[in-house]
Amino acid sequence: MTEREVIIRLRGIRNQFGSQVVHEDLDLDVYRGEILGVVGGSGTGKSVLLRTIAGLQKPAAGSVDVLGTDVLTADEDTRQALENRWGVMFQDGALFSSLTVRENVEVPMRAIEGLDPEIRSELADLKISMVGLQYLAGDKYPSELSGGMRKRAGLARALALDPDIVFLDEPTAGLDPIGASAFDQLIRGLSHSLGLTVFLVTHDLDTLHATCDRIAVLAERKVLVTGSMKDMLKVEHPWVHEYFHGPRARAAASEGSAEPGEKGN
Amino acid sequence: MTRPGGEDFSVSQGDTSNEVVLRGALTIRTVTQAKAAFDGFNPETLARINLSSVTRLDTAGAWAIVRLQNRFSEAQKPLELTGTTDKVASLLHTVAQTMPSPEKAPQSPFSFAQWLDGIGQKVFAGAMFLRALTGYLGIFLHRIGRAVRHPSEFRFTSLVHHCDEVGFKAVPIVALMAFLIGVVLAFQGSTQLRQFGAEVFVVDLIAISVLRELGILLTSIIVAGRTASAFTAAIGSMKMREEIDAMRTLGLDPAMILFVPRILALLVMLPILGLIANVAGLFGGGLMAWIDLGISPAMFMTRLVEGTSVDHVFVGLVKAPVFALIIGVVGCHAGMQVESNAESLGRMTSNAVVTAIFAVIVADAVFSIFFARIGI
């Protein structure tokens, strides 16, 4: 493999809540343009890892390097500039409930000086359409949307400033299989056409098959292994073996191999 | 990489007269400028745009270009883009594919009939709300009857717990409030009555207003704020998490388990709180009268017993059970209206408090008219 640009570099991360250590000496690299899926059992700190990289959780030790900037020691202005270059989609969208979907997508754009409000609103419409929502959904309030639509709207807001990286927390949790696979395709398509790096936390084996270039397994307080789906099937570790060889994994794998074109594009 | 904020964008004439060259970063930071420039392009004189000198292009820039292309296509003059890399072409393609087509939500014009319809709907909703409250009162009375026939279904422990919550724990705030009201009445009354040399009537003023009206009314308002909101929040959060539905599927009656102990506790405790408020109010008034007017406690007592009919106490306290029912029913009803989202919980909680206080004051007005008519 040729050398690729490392866009997120974690070294020696240690996260703990009280006496409970979630991560210990954790290392992880994410390369530009890839879709990385993070899996792990409940309570292994997948979401904590995402929050650590996005600067929402300060680790007890270690360094977090995103786009060549040390997130933990950067000053206010550098951090601000960095935050404009990543977007986070939370589990249920985390849309501001008092704003319409369009206004939600406009929120990050308001920070841009000299952006005409009319253009801002039309760009928000473009993002709403890009994530596959109807034009009229822009006028609705989050409480009027279904769970899948809220996730899409959350993604539209995360994409508002054309970030280099998007973090997705359980993007397909709570969606029906049709909605979930549509969302998988959406992520894959947007990542390809916009050159996004995607860091996604998931439990969904179908998502791993359909979208991820690389998988990182969290276990024993660190990133146990990283690699493609094929590599995962060869890992000996009991939990990893159970995860990728269980009955659900086999079902997802047979589905995945039935649609080989899916992974090729 | 260009630093954000320091991005430049410019348009210049190309090699031929029908070509322009775009230079610099065409991003969300420069799109306002770019759109203004693009709006000036004439389909008759322009045929090609050279993008080879564009250093950065994001979806906002692509949007401006696609928008321009669409405008030219409408004028039957397709616009050619040159110097596009694969990446740029793919981005332009994606944006062109998802370009939103604005549609207006159907909006009927404002009319008199619509306005009338709106008022009618509000009146109807108000009537339905009253009907629902009456329904809840009916449910409560029915379950009380049931509890009398089947005492084993009644939750006595729960009743005691709620009596403690709504009654005992409210004693300090209610007593302090009534004490201060008594002080204020004595102080204001003495200032006015001194002008006529009728200071001693301040005792009557305090006694009648506290015993008849203020003691129970202000207690009810405090309890409405404290308890109606607590009922709504407790029942509402159970409704939100489907606990009420779970109760029903387990054969438990939410009305019997949740409403009866709460409303009954209010019914028992509110008259007691009212009595405490009366005593505290008289004490505050008496203290202030003593300090400010020199009316000794003994004189205050004598004047109080001689000049004030015990009817006033009766008139005040007879309202307490009615206010208790209003507060309890409004609180429980609002709790059951909570939907499965957190906003509705907050909205219904504040609704419950406003409705309960308003209803208590309306009921108090009705009582006043009633007692005036029958001459008590």
From TrEMBL, chain A:
Keyword Nucleotide-binding listed? The answer is yes
SUPFAM superfamilies given in the database record:
P-loop containing nucleoside triphosphate hydrolases
Instruction: Give the record's keywords alphabetically.
Output: ATP-binding, Nucleotide-binding, Transport
Please give the SMART domains that the UniProt record associates with this protein: AAA (SM00382)
Family matches, as InterPro entries: AAA+_ATPase, ABC_transporter-like_ATP-bd, ABC_transporter-like_CS, P-loop_NTPase
The UniProt entry, under Pfam families, shows: ABC_tran
Q: Which domain of life does this protein belong to?
A: Bacteria
Q: Which GO terms describe its molecular function?
A: ATP binding; ATP hydrolysis activity
- Show where the ABC transporter domain sits: 8-245
Is the keyword Transmembrane in the record?
no
Gene3D superfamilies per the UniProt record, alphabetical: P-loop containing nucleotide triphosphate hydrolases
- Under what name is this protein listed? Iron ABC transporter ATP-binding protein
Automatic annotation (TrEMBL), chain B:
- GO molecular function term, any single one: phospholipid transporter activity
Its record classes its membrane topology as: Multi-pass membrane protein
Q: Which UniProt keywords apply?
A: Cell inner membrane, Cell membrane, Membrane, Transmembrane, Transmembrane helix
Domain of life, per UniProt, equals Bacteria
Query: Any idea where this protein resides?
Result: Cell inner membrane
Pfam families xrefs: MlaE, STAS_2
Residue spans crossing the bilayer: 123-145, 166-187, 214-235, 256-276, 282-301, 313-336, 348-372
Q: Which PROSITE patterns match?
A: STAS (PS50801)
Q: Does the keyword Membrane apply?
A: yes
Q: Which family does it belong to?
A: Belongs to the MlaE permease family.
Job description of the protein: Could be part of an ABC transporter complex.
**Protein's name in the database:** ABC transporter permease
Species whose genome carries this gene = Marivita geojedonensis
